[in-house]
Amino acid sequence: MNESQAEAVVNPEPEGGIAQSPESFDATQPEELSPPAESVENPAEALQSAEAPHAAEQMLLTSYSHIEPPQPPRTPNLGHVLVLGILGVFGFVGSGLLARSALYFHLWGVSTIQTAITDVHYTIATMASLYILTFVSAALIFPIIWRKSMAAGLQWNAHAAVRRITPLLGAAGLCFILALVDEVVLPGPTNAPIDKMFDTSAAAWLLFAFGVTFAPLFEETIFRGFLLPAFATAFDWSLETAAHKPPPQLDMHGHPQWSLAAMVFASVITSIPFALMHAEQTGWSLGPFLLLVAVSMILSWARLSTRSLAASVIVHASYNFLLFSLMLVGTHGFKHLDKI
Hints:
- With 340 residues, the chain is mainly alpha-helical.
- The protein folds into two domains: 75-152, no CATH class; 154-244 and 254-340, no CATH class.
- The protein has helices at 3-10, 22-33, 43-65, 78-104, 113-118, 120-146, 150-153, 158-163, 165-185, 193-196, 201-212, 214-243, 260-279, 286-306, 309-330.
- It starts with a helix and ends in a 10-residue tail after the last helix.
């Protein structure tokens, strides 16, 4: 076999008569195997569409993992006031039974209900037993409902009250001045039921002690501890529900934050039953009633401005102390009670 025949075997000629070298054959291979030009025109877009299902799934999982827990209920609310009212009913029954027991044993020389109604010992003992029975049971039940102590739930916050003791004492002085002005402008009846309780020096001292200790503590717990926050929360809740707005976050101590309108509304609506509670003692007179409404508004200011129930207790106790001190001086140590 000569040289030309060997070359023909290595590079056979195709039917078209055009011989192809190995180099030209390799050059045509990529062109035949490459994908169409339009399929790789935007590779980034193709990659994004491939990753889209994974991204959507990841966003869905993220949204489920970041669901915020429901906000705890604002305390105290009207439901808690209802619970306190039920406990008050049981306390009222218990204090009545104690009073009946005292009558049975002729305690303080009293043996009839008619006499007990006007006797200062029975009056104060009945009120004190009512308060104690009600609030001892409340101190046991509300920590279970609120998952915190009753003092914390009612925002006792004594430190805030101590820090602002000067303006609080000034508020008590303002209440005292209002009482003096009211006595001149709109005086109460001369023979009010509360005046009849000051029949002896011992009774006057007993009322003095009760008026600056038990009475301010328990009355403020009812009106500024439960009712005032509950009415403020109810006011804001009604507006939030009507406007389909979420409630504001609780403060750092877990207490609700109220709007100014809610605090004003709650102060007014709380002051009316506070004044009515004392209206019978003052013979349902207009002057003392308006005075008690004004005093209650100042007590509400003390409670709300300091976020402290202890603050309103201090103002209330100080105001009562000033009133009794004036009576003490005017009667020469409760020796001349006819001057009341």
